[in-house]
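Problem: given the chain below (57 residues), write out its structure.
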Amino acid sequence: MAKLVNLKAARKARDRDAARAAGDANAAKHGRTKAEREAERAAAAKAARDLDGHRRE
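Solution.
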């Protein structure tokens, strides 16, 4: 006898897997890691400090 499959659950699982794959592809294409964001933020803060250090009063 064949195994019974809930078609609604199978369709939802298939759609969920497709959405996860699309999200992972977008994250790989456009996303940055937390370390990259923090490194860029630290570099911007250092540049601002250096610029303020050269300011005349």
